[in-house]
């Protein structure tokens, strides 16, 4: 268990040194979906998934996008007040994430094609 934690700590340190968390927080979603260099390949991939009738993949992508949008919402920003965690908001946040993960696990493993 200690080896696993050491490996995860090294991975997290590497991610922080590259600035990935800050880059993910600085994403302009409105600008992203108005940029044709992102929008055209995204729509082509979506059309391909529809053509292939891969509705499970589309649902997993939609849930992942929803959880990503939720993690950047004002509700999540209010989770930490004056440097302390607001205990009253932990249960709804955990419920949303666990619910999303349960649906993804159901789609991938239980209801597989």
Keywords summarizing the entry:
113 residues; mainly alpha; two-stranded antiparallel ribbon; 7 helices; 2 strands
Report the principal-axis shape: globular
Number of helices: 7
Q: What structural class do helix, strand and pairing data support?
A: mainly alpha
Radius of gyration: 18 Å
Q: State the helicity in percent bands.
A: over 70%
Order of helices and strands: HHHHHHEEH
Fraction in beta strands: under 5%
Which spans of ≥5 residues are poorly predicted at pLDDT below 50?
none
Largest sheet data:
2 strands, antiparallel
Distance between the termini: 35 Å
Look at the structure and give the mean pLDDT: 83
Q: What do you see in this structure?
A:
The mean pLDDT is 83. Helix content is 77%, strand content 4%. It has 7 helices and 2 strands, in the order ααααααββα. It has helices at residues 2-18, 20-25, 29-34, 36-51, 55-71, 74-77, 90-110; strands spanning 80-81, 84-85. The longest helix has 21 residues, at 90-110. The radius of gyration is 18 Å and the shape is globular. The protein has 113 residues and is mostly helical. The relative contact order is 0.07. The protein starts with a helix and ends with a helix. α5 runs antiparallel to α7. The chain has a two-stranded antiparallel ribbon with strand order 1-2.
